[in-house]
Each structure stands twice: as structure tokens, then as C-alpha cells.
Amino acid sequence: MPDIMSRPLIRERGVEGARQLEASVSDPSTPVVGILGTGDFSRSLARRLMASGYQVVVGSRTPKRFVALFPEEIEVTTQLEAVTQADLVFVAVYPEHHSTLVELKPALAGKILVDVSNSICISKGPSNAELLADYFPESSVVKGFNTISAWTLQMGPRDGGRQVFLCSNSQKAKNTVKSLCHRMGFIPVDMGLLSSSLEIENMPLYLFPSWRTPVLVTFSLFIFFYLYNFLRDVLQPLVTEKKSVFYKMPIEVVNVTLPSVALVMLSLVYLPGLFAAFLQLRSGTKYNRFPNWLDRWLTMRKQLGLCSFLCSVLHAVYSLCLPLRKSARFKLINMAYKQVKIGIEDSWVDEEVWRMELYLSVGIMALGLLSLLAVTSLPSVANTINWREFSFIQSSLGYCALFMATTHTLLYGWNRAFDPKQYRLYMPPTFVLVLIPPFVVLLGRLALCLPCVAERLRKIRRGWERSRNVCFTLPSEGYCNGLEDISNV
Amino acid sequence: MPDIMSRPLIRERGVEGARQLEASVSDPSTPVVGILGTGDFSRSLARRLMASGYQVVVGSRTPKRFVALFPEEIEVTTQLEAVTQADLVFVAVYPEHHSTLVELKPALAGKILVDVSNSICISKGPSNAELLADYFPESSVVKGFNTISAWTLQMGPRDGGRQVFLCSNSQKAKNTVKSLCHRMGFIPVDMGLLSSSLEIENMPLYLFPSWRTPVLVTFSLFIFFYLYNFLRDVLQPLVTEKKSVFYKMPIEVVNVTLPSVALVMLSLVYLPGLFAAFLQLRSGTKYNRFPNWLDRWLTMRKQLGLCSFLCSVLHAVYSLCLPLRKSARFKLINMAYKQVKIGIEDSWVDEEVWRMELYLSVGIMALGLLSLLAVTSLPSVANTINWREFSFIQSSLGYCALFMATTHTLLYGWNRAFDPKQYRLYMPPTFVLVLIPPFVVLLGRLALCLPCVAERLRKIRRGWERSRNVCFTLPSEGYCNGLEDISNV
Amino acid sequence: MPDIMSRPLIRERGVEGARQLEASVSDPSTPVVGILGTGDFSRSLARRLMASGYQVVVGSRTPKRFVALFPEEIEVTTQLEAVTQADLVFVAVYPEHHSTLVELKPALAGKILVDVSNSICISKGPSNAELLADYFPESSVVKGFNTISAWTLQMGPRDGGRQVFLCSNSQKAKNTVKSLCHRMGFIPVDMGLLSSSLEIENMPLYLFPSWRTPVLVTFSLFIFFYLYNFLRDVLQPLVTEKKSVFYKMPIEVVNVTLPSVALVMLSLVYLPGLFAAFLQLRSGTKYNRFPNWLDRWLTMRKQLGLCSFLCSVLHAVYSLCLPLRKSARFKLINMAYKQVKIGIEDSWVDEEVWRMELYLSVGIMALGLLSLLAVTSLPSVANTINWREFSFIQSSLGYCALFMATTHTLLYGWNRAFDPKQYRLYMPPTFVLVLIPPFVVLLGRLALCLPCVAERLRKIRRGWERSRNVCFTLPSEGYCNGLEDISNV
């Protein structure tokens, strides 16, 4: 349901709007909120405050110029008039222009200033909020709302989890802003004192921080495997047989690279869980901190999985377009010509047929399972399933998908691993290389299924510690609601 | 996690349920809410109110008949008894039956009536709420909850942004209903006086208002390009060479039409942003309102993009099924026959092979990028990324996708634009027509990247105005949190 | 925007963190919350409470050991010290260790205990919360938060609809915990007295309860149709013609099975709505309860539809990879050989070409429509559309998709239903079997469109009852906001 504020109707309130305001104003308890600034953010903020039942007054250096941009119920006046009427003022001007507001210092004494500004780049120096607090020592400065865009204010917090990060040196000012958040439909998160404002100001400037390493890994693996396959499939025939097969570069070489990247990355999703389990088994407790690299690896499993899924889907599309190409058609017709010339009536080879039928069918099933995993990664779907269901999909179905993808690769390889001609320049076929990580993961997981090992691990995860007691039932604290932590295999 | 109210367990509370009610009733501060009406909405509303801690009493003309439909804790009695007990009453009966409640006027005096009714079609006359207020002048009528379906009440506000639009002439009544909203987990939006009730009643009757123009544009472009291709590829061979190729109509003609529509619509997504930028550069300020048509075009960019994505995906599926068809197989076998008869051993044409390998590969990459754009348009995903990340994907990756799609079309065309035989009936090949909008967009975007132009535009967007000052650093108000407005290129 | 608590910065607060705490502590109104237990859940809960403005003190048997695991602002001390300071205590230890807390009974008298424990398996006996209440008769035990995972606490209620199910015998304790929920950004749902705690404890242990029957139906239909097709396409040629075509099992037999399952299941989505409509027409009222089996069938329509969609997509992928297989290539080359030997220059058969072009095109369009239905089933997308729009997509577009899928199957069958050779072992071709359910559904829907029938049904759904009155306009209660219930056809 689009927020009604986005409809053109709202711009044509006219006289009726004034009557609406009267009804609100006549209620003296309606708090007055001031906004300094007249840009998009101010306009959206003013509308949202008005829809939440506040009386809004906007202050501008040239009020007459901007009156037309605001709805009729909102008073647009001089900056001094606005801050005099209001108890809480949003400072929605560029940080480089904060100094121009100095003349309002007397009028702002004892009032609450909300700094909504952002910087252009990640900063290490004093934050805009701290500088503003230096300008207005007699006002309580609260940092907040800088992570909310004008668009979100306009459409409303459709995702009710719209968190607003606040910090201030004054608890009272923070509480006032918190109740204002609640009325507008946002959820305030208290970040502490004004010293946290730098952290808050740097937040909207991050560009997918949790995706950088997974994307880097994907690209590195892609480049490595592309060069490997290029060496084996294009350069080597050129050097040894003088065959020029550069036409393979756009599609065929890419189509051997993508599944390699996908399978290796899928193994990288399940590997850290195994490391974590083995570390816990070796130290006999779950209370030791994991090494930093393992911690970071565990947090990026979802991104690794989604990159792997994207590569799998692209691999499927590239494979499906193989018969579409002119090169495939030329090859087919040439083979027909050859067969006619040789005089073979039936060129059917049972083994080749079975190999392809099997590995295609298993590959499609693996892709189907991976799609289920990808769909349950969507935020809205992940929020509708409980932890046991999530674990079933990501863990059980996930290992199923890894097993199927490995079988797909084994069937594709068939017996070529034992054919010496495949080892060009002493380089093994790509699929042999690529099968190593998933084999390690699947064997490790099998090891964890052995009864004694599984039982020991279960006890450790329920809080038992080898060093503290011989007796298995001695109590120890641990999280007790039975929901395993994210390092669960 | 499905709301427990949907489980069968809830229907079998029995004696224990009564004990639960006692515990609530013995707390005299539990407000009593009445509901007039016994349909699905009443049942779901009653359950949700009960789960939020209210005492509920339902009024019906024939209470004995409907007692079985409600849980045991909810009292089902006569209408008069219900409104006497309650302080706030939901009027959940059909609007055409509001008049039958007139006999309850004395009992409802001074109480709050919430009108949850909807109309059948978009109305211009007095709203149901206003008519109800005429029937009960001594009660405070609040319009609300009509946009919430029985299903949502039952499942709970899974998306916390479940907004409930309220309006009333009485601020006190509105506040009471607002706190009731909060307790049930909804977010109330104040729409003003009862005169807004018509707007609220028309809300759930809109049928994708923001999608109408984009879908219309898509269908118009589809019909235009289908006729154009039909003329060129089916009618013209019939007229000039007497070749009947009507079999091309279901798939081949469609498969040239869909990518044309997709590419033109993708250009239409980025064109308004360029117009907006040029308008701002020409007027030297960002404070002038855009023309209405440009405003509307800017708001429908997401819908245009998603229609374009749907056409691209269908184009991909149609292309992938080309080798599946009997016509393709017959053609292949006939070509093999011809080649055998002529005696050509190798019919390989390097240029044709390279052309197809390249444009297929580039096309798949463009589709991959477009999928990323489509996924980040999903509400739940869009809510997890900040504005800088959103702008990176929709703007940077978006232009990348447009560039790749244009390259895909250029490679597909290859050198056929210079082949006079392609200009049948003086009509240029479709791909030549289709390349015009993206070229305009890409060249315009390149122009905006020139250092002087980019610098001027950046200053304008930070609030600088050419008319007001020669000096580049003079302060002016503007939105300051650094998040660009939605007209950002 | 990832919650800042997930950033490594948070772990390095140091001295500044202490200053933050001072600012909070100096405000005496900050409530003190205690947590017994030091596992992942305790840590995440402590962080979230701190971010919401509470003062947190954690109690452990070996405080020195766990101090390093918590941020500096949180005091980690002995269990006795923690419960003495706090007014509300979260009992985050394993249920089997609740008995060890008995020594704290005096210190916990009169305080609120929140039991967040979960069980390992669905239980019928007394719940953990009831057992805890037996240990601490002088404290108020509230069951809650057991459905919230440590991960959700850490990332924040991104989906604002994060419901927390509470129950307790003490209304006052429940209210305190409810306001704590609100401050942390969750939505409390009151489940009544402590006797509901068993229900709450069993909640996170359900494994997709609403998906079991649909998935069972899908697998059963798949096995049935696979055996049927295996008998007809593999065994029968082996028996009658001694042709071994087992290579068809992985892909070709699967590719006739999947669309059969998909089409039958799509019919099963729309069938219950027709039954419901006919039942209402027959009894002349909408107030009679549906039979249990029909009620259950109506609630699983979405899951049936999504299973059907998954089968359709897999069918599409299997079909698109048919020309990729070696068997297809061998067959093609053998046919070319045959054609050369016989000497046919053009093997074009118009009817076969048209049949394939048509049914492929219609099939792709059906798949496109089904994708739209699937996308609007995503929770976040479903929440942005109102009921009229949802009904348009799921009902109107849905029947369109069913019609197209049926046409696709009819075109695929063409005239083979009338060819006696297709009836092997007296078994009709699969597509004939599969066309029965959709025909029933489409004819039933057509019957409901007849003017007299449609008018009668509309009246019944607006509340008219045949038994109660002859007059068509007599009032009766019914839900009145015009949003049809979920049994709407």
C-alpha cells in the first residue's frame, strides 16, 4: 500500500488542509517541531512529522521563495521565528553551513538540536555533530536520522525495522527524540554519548562492507580458473597441434570457469563450520574465542553462498545456449557430413549418452536445491521461518546440494581423470582440481557424523567442558534456549 | 513463524481458556472493546484484540447463532449489551446496514465508534464514515482499519510497517485508537479530520495505479515492434518471394520484438534522470519544480525497469528454446543434406562463429546484471541497503547493464546495417531503430561526465544557485544529509 | 543497514565505553536488568538491552572467566550479586540446570523471572516455565523470548513484525516485560496464563508444518506419474519391440513427469475455492462452517501453488537442455544420414512445425504468468499490495495461467489422443490423464460466471441467507469492510 503522501492528492489540500491544522492546533499538547533547511529531506521530514500529529514550522533565509514547495499546513518563516516557536529543531542544512546559524544561538539555548547531516566521505576527524555542539554549547545536540533517506521518510517505514541510530550527551534530549521516533513509526537505537556520532556519520558511507571479500574471492577464483582453462583448452592445442580455437574464449572457456568457481565457493561456505567444530572438539570447550580469520569467515558464509549461486545460474544459462551457437551448428553438420562419407548408419555410443543424461539431470537437481537456499536467504522469507527450519534448509539441504554438485562434476569427468592424454603440460583436468575442496568438506562432515564424535560435540555445545569436569552432567552456564549459535555445522 | 492464532490448537481452548480470561478480567484496567458484526473481519479482529490484552465483547442480532464461531473467551451477546459494556466500538457491519444500528444511539452517546467499512467502487460522494457520523452525532467517529484485511489481522503485522490510516474530528478519540493500534502492533498514520475519510476509503480500491502507465507503454511498444517485424520478416518475403513463413509468428517474430521492447524501456528508465540534470544545469538551480510529466516519469522508473527486466527474461527463454523446435531441426537436416550434395567438408565461417559467441556472451552478462538490479528492487532487499549502495547498484551497475545490452544489440547487428538488402520496403532493420534511445542515453550520460559539467551539477545539487550569487561558496539552504534526491542520475 | 553491533568496532570500546555507561548510570531511572547465563544468547541479549538504554548485569558461577566475552559496560559478577541488583532477571541457562539456581530463591523473591529456554523436542509434559515456577513460588515467572534467536537479537528486529510470545500468571509482570519488548523494538503478543507456556515452547520446534502435506502430495504425484510414464515409454517398447531405451530415464521420463505434477497441482490450487463456492450456493448461506478437510485444503493453497511453480521451472530447464544431450545429437545426425540415403531434399512437415512453435510459445507465456504469481507470494511483495490487487493477480492472472498451461498441454497432445497406437497396454497418453483436473476446474469456474449463479453467490457473500429471508435486502451481520475472506474463488 503506497503511503498516501506520495499521491498527487496531497498537494492539492487547499482550504480543507487549513481546517485540518486548526483541529490539531486547538489541541495545545501538540508539540511544535522546527526544521532549519528547505531541501528534499526537510520537505519529506516535514510531511512525515505532520502525518504523525506534530505541528511543524520551517525556517529559511528566504522563506517567501520556498513557501510553494511545502504543503499549506506547514508554516514557512524566518529561521529566527522558527527556532523561537519550536522546542526541538532539526538542523537540515549542509555541515559546511552550520557556522551561519551562529546568530541563532540565544534563541536555541536550552532547546534540542537534531543534527541530520552526512559527510561526503568516511572521516576520522571530529564529527559534524561534535562541531555543531561546539557552536551551540547551551543546546543539547542529538545525532540522528542521517541514515534515513528522504525517500524512506516519504514512503513511510514500510519495513518496520527502520532503525534510527541516536546518540547524545543529554539523556533527556535523547528520550524526547526517541518518543518522536516511535510516533513516526521508527525504532530508535541508543548508541550512547556524542562520541559515537562519528560512527553513526560513517554508517551510510559504507559500500557493501560485508560483500567485499566474497566478491574479491569470486573474481580471483574466476581469473585463476579462466587462465587455467585458457592454457589447457586454447593455448595448448595452438602450440601442439597448430589448431586455432580462440573462438572458444567467450563462451566455452567461461562455461568451464563458472562451475569451477561455483563449486569451490560452495565448499568455502561449509568449510569454516567444520573448522569451528574441530576446534571445539580439540579444545574440549565452546567458550574459547575462535581465531579472527575464522570469525570473519563464518560471518561471510551467506555472501559466499550467494556469489556461488550466481555463478551456478550463469553456468546453467551458458550451458543452455551452447546448441544455439553457429559453431555448434557447423560442428554438427560437419559431423553429419563425415558420417555420411564414412557410411555409418548409427553413430550411437551408449556410454556417452548415459554420461550426459546423468550429469545433466543431477546438475539440474543441484541447481533446484541451490535455488531453494537462495530464496530462503531473502530477508522477508528468512524472517518467516524459525531457526530449526532455517537450519534444515541451509544445513541439511545445503549439504545435499553440495553432494549433488560434486556428483554432477564426477559424472561430467567420468573416466577422463584416468586418461593420460587429459594431462596437458602436466596440468590435471580442471574438474580434478575443483573436486578437492568439496571432497574435503564432505569427508569432514562424514567424520562429524560418527557416533562418538557427534555425541562429544553435542555435549560441548550444551555447555560441557572437558577441562572443568570429568562428570558429564555438572552444570555450567551456557546459552540455554537451545538455539545453536551461528557456528553450527 | 506463523502466528499461533492460525493453529488448530487455538480452537480447543475449553476450560483453560476461561481461566485465562479470569486472570485478565480480574485486572480492572483491561479496556473493554466492542465489535458489532460477526463476519471474518470481526472474528480476526476479536482474536487479535484478545492477543493484545483487551477484553472483547461482540454484539450480534442473533448471538446464539454465532457463539460457536468465536473462541470461548470472547463474549457474544446482543448488540445493546455489547455497546453498553464497551467504551470503544468497532462497527464491522456492511455500510448499507449502518442505519439499522440507529436504535443503539442512546447507548453509544459519548463513546468512540470506529468505522472499518469499505466501499465496492471508488466513490466521489460522502464517505461511509461521514454518513455514520450523521447517524450518531453524539459519538466520536474514527475512520480506520479498512485497509487491513482479515488475513493480516490473523497472521499479525509480519511486516512491521503495517500502517493504519486514521482520521477523526476528535483528537481524543484518535489518540485512543492510536494507542490501540500500537498495542496490536500496527503503526497509526494520522490523516487529519473526518473529511479525509473519502481518501482512506478509496485506498484499497486502487488497482496498481503506479503500474498502469508502464504496462501500457510496454504493450504499446510490443504491438508496434511486433507489427514492424511482422511486416519485415513475414509479409515482405510473402509479397516479394512468395515464401510462406507464417510459422515464424509464434516464436521468431516474438523473439525479435521482446528484446526491442526491453532495450527501449531500459533507456526510458535512465532518460528522465538526464532530462532532470539538464534542466537543473540550464536553470542553474535545483529549486525549480520539474514539469509534471517529468515528475511522473521519474516516479515510474522502477516499474519501467521491472517491465523491461520481464521482457529480457522472456527474450532469454525464447532464445534458448530456438534449437528445441522442429523447424530448427528440419532446417539443420536440410542444410546437412545440401552440404553433402554440394560436397563441402567444412562449412565453418569464422566471422559468423565469432559474432554469435560474442553477442551471446555479452547478452548473458547483461541479463546477469539486470537480475542484480531486479533483486535489489524487492522491498525486503532494498530495505537492507543504504542509499549509497542502492545508488551504486541502480545507477552504476544500471548504466553498465544498459551499455552491455547495447553492445549485445550492436554485435547482433554486426554489419547488417550497411547491407542494402536489409532495408526492405525502405524500413531499416529493427535493431537500428532500437539502438537510437540507448545511444541517446549513453551519450547524454557521457556528456554529464565531462569535468566542467559534472562539477557544475555537483555544486547545484549541494545548493548553489547561479541566479543568487557569483561567489561559489555562499551558503544556501538545501537538504544537507548528503543523500541525493530521487532525480539523481 | 547492518546493525552497528555487528561491526568489530563495537568490541574495541575501551575507556570511552565506560564514559558512556556513566552517562546512563547517573540517570537513576534506568532500569536494571539481570541475566543469568553467559552463552551466545546472553551476550546478544545483553548487547540489545544495552542499546535500548537498560543497565545490564550478568550473573555467572565463574564471573572472571567470562568477563572478556562481554563489552566493558556490562558488569559480569556472581549470580547472587546479579539478582540482588536487578528487578527483572532473564534465566538464560539450560532447563536441566534450573535446579542449581535454588540457592538464589530468597534473593529472587518478589522479582520477575523471564524463562527463555527451549526444549530439544516437542513435549507433552509440564513445560520448563511451569517447572521453574515450581522452584520459585515467590517470583513471577514470565515465559518469553524463546522464539528469538541470538542472531536476531544481534541484528535487530529488521522485520519490525518480530513477535515475542509472552505468558504469565501475573499481569503486572507481563506488562513490565511488554514495555521492555517495545523498547527493544519487538512486538509482544499476550498468550494468556502460564498454562500456554507449553505451546510457546513447542513453537520453534515445528519443521514447516504447513508444507508437509503439499510436499507429500508433490512427491506422491511425482512417483505415480514417473511409474506411469516409465511403463508406457520404457518398459512397453522393451517388451513389445525389444528396444532398450533406458537412457530415457534420467531426463526424458522426468521431463514428462514434472509438467504432469505441475498441472495437476495447479488445478488443486483452484479446486477448493470452487468447492467452497458450490457449498455456499447449495446451503444458501456463508455462515456454515466448511468441512475440516476443505478448511485445511484452503489454507495450503499457497504452498501447493509454489510446489507447482517449482515443478514448472524445473520442467522448463529440463526441456531447454534436451538439444544439449549427446542422444539428441546422435539422433539428429542419424536422421540426416537417413535423409541423405533416401534422397529427400526437404523434410519439412508444416503441421509438426506449427504444433511445436505454438505449444512452446504458449508454454513460455504460462511460465511468465506463473512467475508473476510466485513473485507476489514473497512476503515483502505481498505486503505492498492491497487485497484487490492481490486478488487480481492470484485469481484473475492465476486462472489465465491455468488456462494457458492447459492450452500448452492440449497443443502438445495435438491429435495424439485420437491415435489408437498411443494407447499402449490400454493406458491413455499421460497428457490425457493430466488434462482432466484443469478441465474440471475451468468448467466449474465458467459455471460460476453464469449471470444468475454469479449474482446469487455475490449476495450470499454480502451476508444474505436463503433460510432467513425471502427479502433480498434484510440486514444481517457479516464482515463489512468488503475484503473477501480467503475462500474467495
UniProtKB/TrEMBL annotation, chains A, B, C:
Give the Gene3D superfamilies listed for this entry: NAD(P)-binding Rossmann-like Domain
The organism sits in which domain of life?
Answer: Eukaryota
Would I find Ribonucleoprotein among this entry's keywords?
Answer: no
Localization annotation: Endosome membrane
In terms of InterPro entries, this protein maps to:
Fe3_Rdtase_TM_dom (IPR013130), NAD(P)-bd_dom_sf (IPR036291), P5C_Rdtase_cat_N (IPR028939), STEAP_metalloreductase (IPR051267)
The membrane spanning regions, by residue number, are 213-231, 256-279, 358-378, 390-411, 431-454
* Reactions listed under catalytic activity: 2 Cu(+) + NADP(+) + H(+) = 2 Cu(2+) + NADPH; 2 Fe(2+) + NADP(+) + H(+) = 2 Fe(3+) + NADPH
Q: Which GO terms describe its biological process?
A: copper ion import; iron ion transport
Start and end residues of each Ferric oxidoreductase domain:
261-394
Family, according to the entry, reads as follows: Belongs to the STEAP family.
State the name under which the record lists this protein.
Answer: STEAP3 metalloreductase
Its ancestry begins with: Eukaryota, Metazoa, Chordata, Craniata, Vertebrata
